C-alpha cells in the first residue's frame, strides 16, 4: 500500500481534527442548551458559589492529567511526558467524552504517544490504568460513605440503580493486579502486535495503591463542586455535605461506565437525584442535578481553554515537520 506524502498526511490530520471539533462542538452545544433551558425554568439566582463550582469541576481535569502523565513516565523506558503536554493531551481526551464511548479519548492519547515515540500498547495500558483508578476512586469511598450515612436498607432498596458500578468493582480490582492484568492482555498483544508484554509495562502493587489513593483527589474536587452547587440553591445541614459529595462521585463513575451515552448524559443525573433526595426535597434534588450538569459543561469550556493554552507543548508529527512549506 502506497504511503501518504507528508503534505497529504497533514491535510488528512487537520481534516479529521476539524470533523472531530465540529462533532464535539455540536454535542457540547446541545448539552449546554438543553441544560440551560431546564435550569432557567427553575428561575435560579446567580451565586458566586456557582463560579467556585465551575472552577472545582475544571481543576479536577488537569489534575487527573498530571496523574496520567506520571503513570506514563513511570512505565515508559524512553520518552517522558512533560507536565504541560500531559495536561494538554488529557484535556483534549476529556473533551472527546461528548462522542459516545471512550474510543475518541483513547485514539487521541495513542496518536500523541506515536508522535512522542511511545508504543501504542504502552499508552493503551496507561489509559486503562487511568480509567480503572478513576472509577474505583469514585465508587469505593462513595459507597462506603453512603452506606454509613444512609444505612444498608436504603442502599439495598435502590440496588438496581447501583448494580452497574458495584458489579464493575470486581473486574476493576482484578485489573489493578499486575500479574492478572498482564495475563489478560497477553493473548491480545500476541495476536494484534505479535509481541510479548514486558513486566515493566505494568505497575507494581505499591505503585498501584499509591496511584489509587492519588486519583481520589480529582474525585473529591468533583464532589466539592457539587456541594457548592447545592449550597448555591438551598440550605442543607453540614452533615449532608460529605454524603452529597459521595453521591456525585458515585454518579460520575456510573456515567463513565455508561460508555454508549455521551458524557454519561442522564445516567449521572439519575444517581444524583436518587441520593440527593435523601437530604432535600425531590424537586430541589432534580434542579441541583441539572445545574451541576450545566456548570460542569461550562467547566469543560474552561478545560478547552487550558488545552488551547498548552497545546504548543505537544509534539508534532516528525514527517510534518520535514514537509516543505
The residue-averaged pLDDT reads 78
Report strand %.
under 5%
Shape: globular
Task: From the alpha carbons, calculate the radius of gyration and give it in angstroms.
Answer: 21 Å
List the helices and strands and how they pair.
Elements: H1 6-41, H2 48-75, H3 83-95, H4 103-116, H5 120-150, H6 152-157, H7 159-176, H8 178-193, H9 205-214, H10 216-233, H11 241-257, H12 267-276, H13 282-310, H14 318-322
Helix pairs in contact: 1-13, 2-3, 2-5, 2-10, 2-13, 3-4, 3-13, 4-5, 5-7, 5-10, 5-11, 7-11, 10-11, 10-13, 11-12, 12-13
Architecture overview:
Residues 260-264 and 318-325 have low confidence and may be disordered. α4 crosses α5 and α5 crosses α10 (216-233). The chain is built from 14 helices and no strands. It has helices at 6-41, 48-75, 83-95, 103-116, 120-150, 152-157, 159-176, 178-193, 205-214, 216-233, 241-257, 267-276, 282-310, 318-322. The protein has one domain (6-318). With 325 residues, it is mainly α.
Descriptive tags:
mainly alpha, 14 helices, 77% helix, 325 residues, disordered C terminus
Structure, briefly:
The protein contains 14 helices and no strands. The chain has helices spanning 6-41, 48-75, 83-95, 103-116, 120-150, 152-157, 159-176, 178-193, 205-214, 216-233, 241-257, 267-276, 282-310, 318-322. Helix content is 77%, strand content 0%.
